[in-house]
Amino acid sequence: MKIRTLLESLDVAFSMYSAIPMPQIEWNERNMKYMMAFFPMVGVVQGALLLGFSLLAQALGLGFVLFAAVAALLPLFVTGGIHLDGFCDTVDALSSHQTREKKLEILKDPHTGAFAVMGCVAYLLLTFALWTQPQGSGRWLTVQMMAVGFVLSRSMSACAKSSGLVHSFSSAAQKRNVRIAAAVFAAACVLLWLWIHPLLGAVLTGCCLLNFWYYYRMSQKQFGGITGDLAGYFLQLNEIIILLASVLYTLSAR
After folding, report:
1. What tens digit of pLDDT does each residue of 207-253 get?
2. pTM value?
3. Whole-angstrom Cα distance, residue 50 to residue 33?
């Protein structure tokens, strides 16, 4: 692979999965084949921003409500809401209790259903409420685990996508390379979690693996495979599970 192709793939990954301004290049089959290998890098930026905001909030003495509001909305600022959109579409489809074909139609429907709206409101409200809970060292621990979790969630999503419907244009070798890159990111995240806090890191790793097992089985059973919307659903669900488990741990350790 040429360095130019890798840089273009990085550009495409950020252009597609974030709201961060990137140089405009032509998207083609060559530079889109490996974009999922760089998908976790969006999580690196998101995690770095969360860490930076947390330090800034501490220095300025921001109240817990304002901190929680910004922390809850920060992922939307970075991603432009692309993953939350997939989460909402999936909630809408699952809540319909229709046939597989009808659920796939709902995923493709550009209109927003009632269940999607309720799912979005519930997700953001719960995220905000969870961020109001940890204080002091507990907040810093939660911030660190979430910063790593942004990367791990995207690594796991990239690994699933490389074998799903959304990556059907790639060859077996290219899919293997994407899975290897995603696995390296994921392993680094788990090791970092265990280094920050061994017990909580182990708990979060177990939670993410269980969620991935549920997501894969649900996708196959309900939709016949993995789509972009389902990948967004997994990512959002995984992130709120990481946040929930981290907050519950910090509260129990008081």
Report:
1. 999 999 999 999 999 998 888 889 999 999 999 999 999 999 999 98
2. 0.93
3. 29
| Dihedral sign (CA 165, 171, 176, 178) | negative
H-helix segments, the chain: 3-17, 29-32, 39-60, 64-79, 82-96, 100-108, 114-131, 137-161, 172-196, 198-218, 228-252
Please state, in angstroms and rounded to a whole number, the distance separating the CA atoms of residues 180 and 185.
Answer: 9
Rounded alpha-carbon distances, angstroms, from residue 177 to 21, 35, 37, 180:
27, 11, 8, 5
**Res 169: pLDDT:** 44
Amino acid at 122: A
Coil, helix or strand at residue 221: helix
**Other CB atoms within 10 Å distance of the CB of residue 181:** 20
Encoded tokens for 83: 């993953």
In degrees to the nearest 10, what's the CA dihedral of 208, 158, 90, 216?
A: -60
Comparison of pLDDT for 234 and 6, the residue scoring more: 234
Contact 203, 145 (CB under 8 A): no
Burial of 226 (0-12, 13-18, 19+ CB in 10 A): buried
> 32-67 pLDDT, tens per residue?
777 888 999 999 999 999 999 999 999 999 999 999
Three-state secondary-structure class, residue 254 = coil
CB atoms within 10 A of CB 161: 25
